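hey so i finally got around to running the thing on that chain from the lab meeting. sorry it took forever, my laptop kept dying and i had to restart like 3 times. anyway pasting the input first so we r on the same page abt which one it is
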Amino acid sequence: MRSRLSTTMLSWVITICLLAFASSKPCDNEGSNNELLLSLNKDLLRSLGRQEGLPNPSVHLALRISSYHNLAKESEHLIRLNTQLHNDIQNSLSSSPSVVGLLALYTLALKSSCYDLNTVTFTVSDTSETLLTHLKKQMEKEKERLAYSHRPLTNYYQYSLGVLALCTSGIRVNDHVSNKLIKAVEHQYLKQGDAECIDTYAMAGMALQCVKDTGFHVRNAAELDTALDKIKQKLLASRRADGHIGNEFSTGLAVQALLAMGSPVAECAASMEAMRTDARSNTYHNPMAISQILPALQQKSYLTVKNKACLNEDDTLVLEPIDPVVVLPSDTKVSVIVEVVTSSGEAALYSVDVAKGSSLLEALELLKGREVGFMFEKESSLWGPFLSVVNGEQARQSDRRYWHLSSDGTALSQGINDFKIEAAQKITIKNTSY
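ok and heres what got predicted. didnt touch it at all, straight out
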């Protein structure tokens, strides 16, 4: 279970890493829709009551950055973070090699509520130390790994989150720590295989911009500026014809990063409109996705928490009762071929007919129940469940492997519970190294 916490962040990154597609579509910032923003805000707030497992710090962060609040519900969620998530992280600190990503998100969530971080402690091996001390130690472990490898213990997304959390909390980030990230940008290490990880570039951009804003990183100021410029150009070059940067699920962080790095709002308007269009079509039904696009659509970023004062906040967000929606299963069946490719390259094929509109998870559960030799196990993440074991074989972060999912050769940008089967297709589940 403890490895799950670090795998949570790995799953998050891998899910939305896709090749970027260049576009030169001009920006137009017209059409900001307050009604849509309120609707998204309420969707996030309602998700607090539907959370399974641990409370989500990313959701809390987005709610706190927002211009609209329901302070009572946010306070209730803060208590859950301070108890349930806190206890789980404490257990993980003793047993996992690195939980820097989740620890950083927890830090940002508390900071967004103006919580005194010096009062938050973890006790490991009978020694009590503050949250920020543990985060600094986690980052040192990540940096030490980079001394003999171009990859941290976890990944550069989590590494960037750690830098951002320390920086926004008023902690001077060790030059050696930030320099490792600068070098990673310079040498284009922020990739998943051959794919550009746009969300990782975005998080690195926000982290390094925060470091630049502190004014402490003067020894290599030119290299820092060059890295920030490379990140900005990478994000802009990855904008598709429809306005999305990378894909639908990396655009929110990309826009946040561009705004944080000083891009004019007009430069991001096409991407904002793309997110609004998809939000209206319910593409962003996953709370994790909403938590990343909402700040961007409000022209804010995670850097906002650095100077957040929590004074005179709006408290007008009210959740109206809604009638439950019953979705009846479709009578139409579609055929799905499932291919499992193990780490050795051995492949096995299975077929199953599922109701149109079923989730991939439902299709896999149905196939498993037919007892034809297909088996799988899943674990939880901030984005929802993900595959951990298939046909008895693990894809472990410690071995730098994961189960790569594709449909008819195209990598999935959604998790197994979010991806819907709308037509006959071939799903490939491949044990992949990174």
